[in-house]
Amino acid sequence: MSITPITPLTRRAASTALALAAAVALAAQATPASAASNAVPTYEVKINLTTAALDSAHAPLAAVKSAFGITGSATARSYAYYDTDAQGLGGQGWDVRLRHKSGKDFEETYKKRFAVTGGDVDAALDAANAAGFDSSDDNYAAEVDWGYAKQTLSFSNEKSHSDSGYSGTAMPSGATGLGWVAADVPGKLADWNSDGWGAGTLGASRVHGPVTSAVYEGAWESSDDASIEVVPVVGASGSGTEYVVELSFKTDDPEDAAALHADAISVAEAKGWLYKGDILKTQTILDRY
Questions:
Q1: Where does the pLDDT of residue 34 fall: very low under 50, low under 70, confident under 90, or very high at 90 and above?
Q2: Strands 42-49 and 241-251: what pairing?
Q3: Which of 29-38, 135-144, 247-256 has the lowest mean pLDDT?
Q4: Does this model's pTM top 0.85?
Q5: Which residue among 204, 225, 233, 237 has the highest number of C-beta atoms inside a 10 angstrom radius?
Q6: Rounded to whole angstroms, how far apart are CA atoms 17 and 263?
Q7: What confidence tier does 35 reach under pLDDT thresholds 50, 70, 90?
Q8: What average pLDDT score do residues 256-260 get?
Q9: Quick one: 130 exposed, middle or buried, by C-beta within 10 A (0-12, 13-18, 19+)?
Q10: How far is the C-alpha of 127 from the C-alpha of 260, rounded, in Å?
């Protein structure tokens, strides 16, 4: 057997190879992975109307429906929210909703909200990206809700539960519904703040609601998804019934959203139907039930 002698030349080559390998490894460690881009949101314009827009049966007036392209008859939907008495989830920008549309399976929605300040949607998207909500996560749909004066960026995770045994828009008991949404809690909420925080907070929650609303659909201007939702809620005093009337339009284009927002306000104000403020349905139900 012959033994290859180790010469200064071979020692130098080996040393060079080792140094090159170390440099490559160090460069790989020093080069950060490319960050995912910001999510691209859709838009939903939400304008509240006063009860002057309703008839004696609490349905939209024919003139209101005509003005905003609403042609469909009423369909019902029931929904409720889950949070603690102190609204621990809401305090961290999370909403958990269970909704039932007639003839459909139950919809479980887990939504994270980010404030939009001064109309700067890009800054809100940057904040969401830093929190782990970006274009790479296809489990969450991004949307900008654009009210009378307020904009909010939200990311929604949608799941479903069989409606077997429930007819129409019937809802489960509070405990049963809580069991469903707690069992399906997504990872981002489950470990928000710290390991298990969201799952534990949701598990300690209770039902707020339910309410059953009437929804009238149609198309207006650039939106093929226009609607008026009339939501009866218990009065602020704890008795009686008040009606939240929400006119909404969905679009993928921010310029279309801006035009819809301006035009809807202009028409509603000219007709005397405009509520000059933002009534947040979710918060109203959380506060009053």
A1: low
A2: antiparallel
A3: 29-38
A4: yes
A5: 233
A6: 69
A7: confident
A8: 98
A9: exposed
A10: 26
**What is the identity of the amino acid at 57?**
A
Q: Which pair of structure tokens corresponds to residue 17?
A: 């190879």
